[in-house]
Amino acid sequence: EPEVTQTPSHQVTQMGQEVILRCVPISNHLYFYWYRQILGQKVEFLVSFYNNEISEKSEIFDDQFSVERPDGSNFTLKIRSTKLEDSAMYFCASSIVRSNYGYTFGSGTRLTVV
Amino acid sequence: GQQVMQIPQYQHVQEGEDFTTYCNSSTTLSNIQWYKQRPGGHPVFLIQLVKSGEVKKQKRLTFQFGEAKKNSSLHITATQTTDVGTYFCAGLGGATNKLIFGTGTLLAVQP
Questions:
Q1: pLDDT-flagged residues of chain A (< 70)
Q2: A33 touches chain B (CB under 8 A)
Q3: Do A107 and B48 count as a contact with CB atoms less than 8 A apart?
Q4: Least CB-CB distance to A42: which of B42, B48, B101?
Q5: Quick check: B51 and B31 in contact, CB under 8 A?
Q6: What is the DSSP string of A88-99?
Q7: How confident is the model over B46-73, as a mean pLDDT?
Q8: Does B96 touch chain A (CB under 8 A)?
Q9: Of residues A39, A9, A41, A28, the one with CA closest to residue A109
Q10: Cα–Cα distances in Å, from A74 out to A71, B13, B30?
């Protein structure tokens, strides 16, 4: 079964450093998403991406965050200057159409900011 | 903004007992999806409901979408230890492309 692949599985970074989280969505999917989940809490929407541009973003997704699809396969989330409160599990997801068949989530990247 | 709440937050049942989680949205939804997240895992899509009053079944799981399209429920009959995890509803509202997750219900099943 096709999978969404995320790397790394765990990243530890110093406060103020930049991090890039990487995702390879399912190849025939057209919509891509980033969510985050602080330990034990709900899954929070960050951003959706379609046709090489952001289609929606949440209040969490401020100027410190950016997304990119640098080539035909990768989808990245960059956090420019990490804060302690950015520590969370970051999930990438993709869907073939706009949510009609559910999202396929990757296994996540656990980001720890120290 | 749109909020999606679930109750209960946590439920502990004996294996074989039934379980229900309820989901309520602050706004009318165009569709609602349900996901299961095993401990330490990622959300896995279970089902989508689109029509007002819709009921769908997957083996021991029954999903319902309210008439007003603002609430939903998931009922599990005769729970098994493999049902352990957090069940999230997630709502898509109107023209927005944001799938907003509910607060989740953590189900613990004692053998």
A1: 98-100
A2: yes
A3: no
A4: B101
A5: no
A6: EEEEEEEESSSS
A7: 97
A8: yes
A9: A9
A10: 6, 42, 30
